[in-house]
Amino acid sequence: MGFDNAAIAAIGETEKSRPSETNDQPFHDLEEYLWMAAQETLGGTGLSIADVDGLGLARPSIETQYRFPLMIADTLGLSDLKWITATDHCGGQAVPLLAQAAMAVDAGVAETVLCLGADTPKVPDRGEGEVFPRDPRGLQRNYKDPFGVQGTNAEIAHVQNRHAERYGTTPEQLGRLYVTQRRHAAANPLAYFDEPVDLEGYLESAPIADPIRLFDCVIPVNAGFGALVTTPERAQELTDTPVSVAGVGHNHNPAVPEDRRLTATGMGPAADRALDQADLDPTAADFYQLYDDYPIVLAIEMEEIGLCEPDEVGRFLEETDFGIEGDVPLNTGGGQLCAGQAGVAGGFLQVVEGVRQLRGEGGDRQVPDAGCGLVTGVGGVSANYDGVLSANSAMVLRAEVSA
Amino acid sequence: MTAEFPFPDRVAERDRAFWSAAAEGTLLIQECTDCGHRQFYPRPGCEACGSGDLEWFETEGVGEVYSHTVIRRATEHPAFEDDLPYVVAYVELEEGPLFCTNIVGCAIDDVENGMEVEVTFDRIDGELSVPKFRPR
Lengths: 403, 136
Known about the structure:
Helices cover 33% and strands 16% of the residues of chain A. By secondary structure, chain A is of the alpha/beta class. Chain A has two domains: 7-124 and 222-243, 3-Layer(aba) Sandwich (Peroxisomal Thiolase, Chain A, domain 1), CATH 3.40.47.10; 139-219 and 246-398, Thiolase/Chalcone synthase (Peroxisomal Thiolase, Chain A, domain 1), CATH 3.40.47. Chain A has a nine-stranded mixed sheet with strand order 3-2-4-7-1-8-11-10-9, sandwiched between helices. In chain A, strands 5-6 form a two-stranded antiparallel sheet. In chain A, helix 6 (171-186) packs across helix 10 (295-305), helix 6 (171-186) crosses helix 11 (313-319) and helix 9 (267-278) packs across helix 10. The radius of gyration of chain A is 20 Å and the shape is globular. By secondary structure, chain B is mostly beta strands. Chain B has one domain (13-135). The relative contact order of chain B is 0.20. Chains A and B meet through helix 4, helix 5 and strand 5 of A and helix 1, strand 4, strand 5 and strand 6 of B.
């Protein structure tokens, strides 16, 4: 049971960029980000691209050709691959991608799997506005667009609207999460935002879709990420600080009970499965890298993981220290809200930050004595009709491996 | 209107049927002839029991606001720029399903969850009428 025969030996993360016609931030295309992410990931291991025998690719949101993973294998010079896979779970797909890679390694199908994700939601000549491409057909096109639903922000607005009504959750409570993560981002050289913001700054940010304001929304960036999944034996040869995948759980297209309609993610069963596999109590992780497209989603994940009860989450947010040395160290690199969301590769941020903390490479934001952590991925806000998040994945990472 | 209205594609027969009925002033949902489940949006089969035996069910076009948001920025659909601010709501239809729509016919600040509403059709062109809701 579990992933005893697979480990994470390396990670890679590029700088974040929001290129536009009015700034000089660099623009790289998808192929360049994936190449940079591969170089970053393999860089410290002594391996070359020729040593990789498996490729896992997170499908980007921007338009790509069908057979995209095969084309990327060729672009990067990956040859004689024993295995290729791709995920299409929206923003949180890094966790299921690494889980697939761990299963492939565990099954002996491949030994050294390079997992990559990149996305480029910001294109200089397209200006501000629309981040994700419009669906050409289907549910969104027929039953959301004609009513002027303005993307994910407008969908999550319903979640926060119902959550406030059902449980009394306030913007002031949710804003504490944002303020904490901005502080963490300021200690992360790879984060997009490098200046802290106070609660007043959060509350005064521009209204987008009530009750969602600007600082409730992730900041879209262009970036690439990677992770190398291999056998524990090989991981120990490649690095002094391999990280093990102690548990994984998923819960996709969750069935939501009537009293949680619009205020559930479905993360509960996913986290339960991962924590059970790792034999870890929900409150016992040393840090929590929780998928954060919006503070209200973080709050709901905390309820469902079992950090607090739904009707107490507001008080929990007020009373808990989410800082690096606090009770519940949360998104220690700033999360996607403050480090930036690289489109639907965004959830890689949680994975690489979790690995980095367990390797003791957190720098000014290192969680003391970090031995195990919970990482989540959530995605697919408007993949279904009534605002529930479709894809939920959780992963427990540990600092030790047993070869 | 500065950008083209995001028309529904109406490629699948079930989508054509829904929008054709709307153009004639009827709000349709689907009912499963095997288990009786009622659903919206239109699907090829019943989401509850998997049956492929679905019939169209004409709703009364009434319900309650289940959740709502006031849209302040047209970040994805510039066609709605001139309508800002406007209300997008999920209305819980009397027949059960939630229906994503707009609330019109009252001040945006007057929209509340639980408010009783009824359908009204906003004609976009000769073939498209968008079902919106107003206070009853």
